[in-house]
């Protein structure tokens, strides 16, 4: 009887653990998607300035670059092994983990450098595009196309 | 009388195959598609240049559509669009080394024209709804749903290799005709003329009116930019 009880307890706790793991996995995907959405929203606003559709605003550009650097530190930790299931994350993330994480390191470093280099509209237009090219590089290799 | 005879004797006997607006639209489209490739891979990060490229391609496509209805005789869809039987018959003749000679597009070439125009149009139209989710927001992304944008963005990438394949086939076929066969299509598409001779379709071609061509171009510009603006998009990237 006690052995059977132990078995039931073990089974239940395993099920609970597995459920928690699955929940945690979808949570981690949600977290990184939320950080990416922050990137998207901030970049869209700066994109308008880059095209000349909206007036240049140094403070917005600086806060965007700060956001790039901040989220680039957190994002690599939000891609644990096996968390790609039913998301746009490609297996290449875990097959070429070093390359993937290096892109975040580059994005953070480039953002910090651009933050210092950008003082006016001209230096913005010269320095900003180089920072976000890394976004496209990463999407091309590590994100599902559709 | 004698002057006419002299001219006929000295000038090589050629006939009009494709009128100027048809040839201009053709080479302009080819150049713009090439530029669209360049502006995607070597252009600005916001793809502003690439978007202008796409809009220009749309204008040329709408022009070509109109010109296919009211343009020169060999530019009209009704003249070069033939059924699968005709295409098959022509293809068999080609394989036997005795292709029927057409002044305008032959039956297989006619289908290639349609395929190229349709695929280029699909690529240009999906491009209007495409985003890279980073900084590129094409003219219609402001008013389209997220699903539409995601679908169009994926299609814009999927159609691209199809377009490249069609272009490759088209270029190889034309080089083969011009270099190996007796029908120099490339020269005819540049200069507009082919040697006088016996053709299946009526020769010489009747050119379309230049005034009508300008009107078609104006309508095309209006349709593309006006259409995007009316649909709530931003026609100026």
Describe this structure in words.
The complex is a heterodimer of chains A (146) and B (237). Chain A has a single domain (30-142), classed as Cytochrome c/b562 (Four Helix Bundle (Hemerythrin (Met), subunit A)), CATH 1.20.120. In chain A, 78% of the residues lie in helices and 0% in strands. Chain A has helices spanning 2-51, 58-74, 92-95, 97-117, 121-142. In chain A, helix 1 (2-51) packs antiparallel against helix 2, helix 2 (58-74) runs antiparallel to helix 4 and helix 4 runs antiparallel to helix 5. Chain A is elongated, with a radius of gyration of 21 Å. Chain B has helices at residues 2-10, 20-42, 48-70, 77-80, 84-95, 107-127, 146-179, 185-191, 210-230; strands spanning 14-16, 193-195. Chain B: GO terms for molecular function: electron transfer activity; heme binding.
Strand content of chain A: under 5%
Provide the structure class of chain A. Answer: mainly alpha
CATH class call of chain B: Mainly Alpha
User: How many strands, what sense, and barrel or not for the largest sheet of chain A?
Assistant: none
Element layout with pairings:
The complex is a heterodimer of chains A (146) and B (237).
Chain A: H1 2-51, H2 58-74, H3 92-95, H4 97-117, H5 121-142
Chain B: H1 2-10, E1 14-16, H2 20-42, H3 48-70, H4 77-80, H5 84-95, H6 107-127, H7 146-179, H8 185-191, E2 193-195, H9 210-230
Antiparallel strand pairs in B: 1-2
Helix pairs in contact in B: 2-3, 3-6, 3-9, 6-7
Pfam families (chain B): Ni_hydr_CYTB
Keywords (chain B): Cell membrane, Membrane, Transmembrane, Transmembrane helix
Transmembrane segments (chain B): 24-43, 49-67, 108-130, 159-180, 210-231
Summed up, what is this model?
Chain B: One of its GO terms (cellular component) is plasma membrane. Chain A is mostly helical.
Tags for this entry?
heterodimer; A: 146 residues; mainly alpha; Four Helix Bundle (Hemerythrin (Met), subunit A); 5 helices; elongated; B: 237 residues; Fumarate Reductase Cytochrome B subunit; two-stranded antiparallel sheet; 9 helices; Cyt_b561_bac/Ni-Hgenase (chain B); membrane (chain B)
